[in-house]
What does this fold into?
Amino acid sequence: MTIRGSQVMPVYPLTEDVLPGDVFLVTTPIQQQQQEFKRRGFLPLPQLVARLHPSGVEDFYLSSHGTRGMTNPPYFWRFDGASGTNMLSQMPRAAFPSYQFSTRTGAGLNIAVPINAIPVAINLVGGKRVEGSVLLSDAYTYGFDQANLQDILLEWAAKNSDLLESLAPLDGGTNYLRMISRVYLVGGVSVQVNSAGSFSGSASGGADKPVNLPNLEGTNTVEHYTSALASLSSALSTALSAPGGTIKVSSASTRSVSLNETFPRPLVVGYLGFDLPVLPGGEIGFPQDTLMRVKGGAAHPIQAIPLKHSADANSTVLRAWLKEDAANIAKANEWLARNNPTANLANVITAGEFRDLRKQMVEQLVKP
Amino acid sequence: MAGKSKTKKAAAKAPDGLPQPEIVPRDKVGEKVQDFIDFGGAKAVEAREQDAKNWLVTAIN
It folds into this structure.
């Protein structure tokens, strides 16, 4: 089961404290990152470098979804401040397909989503081999466009070049700033697990806490069945006293159990984002889509250092001269091939790094 | 060669004959895009046609 099948990068662990505008430092080399992503189904977000707050949520959603006059997503959705109740129902909705999984007792369960209900359900059915499905319910999403986020990230980068320089790789690798552009939240999960092996008749939830599993073999009446489910839910809620969510048994038989786990508030289960390489010296490179990159579909980062725009009087003179006659462009490129073969004419016109070269070109070609 | 020392940082040239990206004030983006198309060479025009998302200009206030 992988959420990335829905083109979403899974978050581990589930949290409500991941927002669009969060910038994480990713240090894993891309080859290793792809292997880790394939193996685990998610990528950890270890180091939060900055939390940038994109403005304009009202414009982005055209004042719909309860954003009129609001500036602080997602907090105004969670609590409106006036009544103390949340406005989550106004947040844009999302829906996920169900995910299938199977595992054997004692084997690791590689589902990439830390949902309590799954191991609990597996223990309840108690088979040596289990198959199941997970449905992420009550899902919401919100985000911002990459152009907006990229702008504020570059502005932040310009002010924090010292920090970025310290984050630049020293060993020839590439570090990335991963900016979250959209998050997906879920309010609950429904888990159904079927035992493909024999029924054991015992269960435990969490860290070896005993749970009395009622004898479901004898629940041949609605009253007994409902009572058994209530007992199971009660036993689970007692055994799983840890914070994070509540688990209720929605149906159970000797070979299958269905659990509904609800969270007090929706938690972020996945995100979309893009990566910007931190180049040697602390410069920021081209953005790349995170999902594309870890799937191996994105190109290798363009290791070209962005130049700083710094037009001057020679820029105007040079541009006008080049536009006068196509032959002038050929002359300029020939001159560059002799004097600085690594420079591109389009960069020479305005880049601050080429100010002196631009002056020489104007003096020697335009105003000889 | 004063120009060479100034352009040392730009030695990491973009691949395939592309110009290097430039971080450009927002009001100069149109002009710079036109520069890349007019003077950046065939690869720049090709890149522009193929993938506008990863174009060479990044706007900044």
About this structure: DSSP finds three helices and two strands in chain B. The interface with chain A takes residues 2-4, 6-7, 9-15, 17-25, 28, 32, 35-36, 38-41, 44, 54, 58-61 of chain B (CB under 8 Å). Residues 1-13 of chain B have pLDDT under 50 and may be disordered. Residues 23 and 58 of chain B are 5 Å apart (CA to CA).
